[in-house]
């Protein structure tokens, strides 16, 4: 697998930006019209993606203070109520932030105010109970990706950056394949083929 990662990097022309490393997994023997065969999950990557993942915290008081050093935005109760009246601002933040977490007692208010904006984007906050290790939760989310299928049996996901060490990229890919082995009915027997490429490079087949 590491050899395929190296080949994908080698086959890619140098750009004036750090290209991502994209993984495409084609599935087989799955009826995607059945909800149980669709995937919509989050997965922690051991080495992250090399891309900035933004986390928003909806909280007041001590929880907000703790999260201040690592969160990309803090939204208190007053700001939450204000955003309910400013749909444009709410949509901008919803598009800019990858994951949200919220103080557990603010969740009902989040549902009323930001639910219509965050819900359709699959970004409803995860509740944080009192005394939860908020810093660790946020740091984990910053290395988390979404794995999702739609109407086609295909998964496309960012596994890292071309600047990352190839072994670390391989570890990320292994984490995804291990997850799918548990998630899919027939495990890796439901996988038809796997390809890896840089953002603008040529695809290389894994296991070829």
Write the topology of this structure.
Blueprint: H1 2-10, E1 20-27, E2 40-44, E3 55-58, H2 61-67, E4 73-75, H3 77-83, H4 87-96, E5 99-103, H5 107-113, H6 115-118, E6 126-128, H7 134-141, E7 144-148, E8 154-161, H8 166-183, E9 191-198, E10 204-205
Parallel strand pairs: 3-4, 3-5, 5-6
Antiparallel strand pairs: 1-8, 1-9, 2-7, 9-10
Helix pairs in contact: 1-8
Order of helices and strands: HEEEHEHHEHHEHEEHEE
CA-CA gap between termini = 10 Å
Helix content: 25-40%
Q: Count every helix, treating DSSP H or I runs of 4 or more residues as helices.
A: 8
Low-confidence stretches: none
Keywords:
4-stranded antiparallel beta sheet, Ribulose 1,5 Bisphosphate Carboxylase/Oxygenase, 4-stranded parallel beta sheet, Rossmann fold, globular, 8 helices
Molecular structure report:
This protein is an alpha/beta fold and 208 residues long. The chain has 2 domains: 14-50 and 144-205, 2-Layer Sandwich (Ribulose 1,5 Bisphosphate Carboxylase/Oxygenase), CATH 3.30.190.20; 55-141, Ribosomal protein L1/L10, domain II (Rossmann fold), CATH 3.40.50. It is built from 8 helices and 10 strands. The chain has helices spanning 2-10, 61-67, 77-83, 87-96, 107-113, 115-118, 134-141, 166-183, and strands at 20-27, 40-44, 55-58, 73-75, 99-103, 126-128, 144-148, 154-161, 191-198, 204-205. The strands form 3 sheets. A 4-stranded antiparallel β-sheet has the order 8-1-9-10, with helices on one face. A 4-stranded parallel β-sheet has the order 4-3-5-6. A two-stranded antiparallel sheet has the order 2-7. Helix 1 crosses helix 8 (166-183). The longest helix has 18 residues, at 166-183. The chain starts with a helix and ends with a strand.
């Amino acid at each position: 697998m590491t050899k395929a990662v190296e080949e994908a990097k080698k086959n890619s022309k140098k750009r004036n930006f750090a290209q991502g490393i994209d993984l495409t997994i084609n599935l087989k023997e799955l009826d995607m019209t059945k909800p149980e065969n669709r995937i919509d999950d989050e997965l922690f990557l051991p080495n992250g993606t090399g891309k900035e993942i933004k986390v928003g915290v909806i909280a007041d008081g001590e929880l907000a203070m703790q999260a201040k050093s690592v969160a990309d935005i803090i939204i208190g109760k007053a700001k939450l109520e204000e955003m309910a009246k400013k749909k444009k601002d709410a949509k901008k933040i919803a598009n800019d932030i990858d994951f949200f977490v919220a103080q557990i007692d603010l969740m009902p208010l989040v549902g009323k105010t930001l639910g219509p904006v965050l819900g359709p984007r699959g970004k409803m906050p995860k509740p944080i109970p009192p005394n939860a290790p908020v810093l660790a939760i946020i740091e984990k989310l910053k290395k988390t990706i979404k794995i999702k299928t739609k109407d086609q049996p295909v998964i496309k996901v960012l596994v890292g950056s071309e600047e990352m060490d190839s072994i670390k990229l391989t570890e990320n890919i292994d984490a995804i394949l291990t997850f799918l082995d548990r998630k899919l009915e027939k495990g890796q027997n439901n996988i038809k083929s796997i390809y890896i490429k840089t953002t603008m490079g040529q695809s290389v087949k894994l296991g070829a």
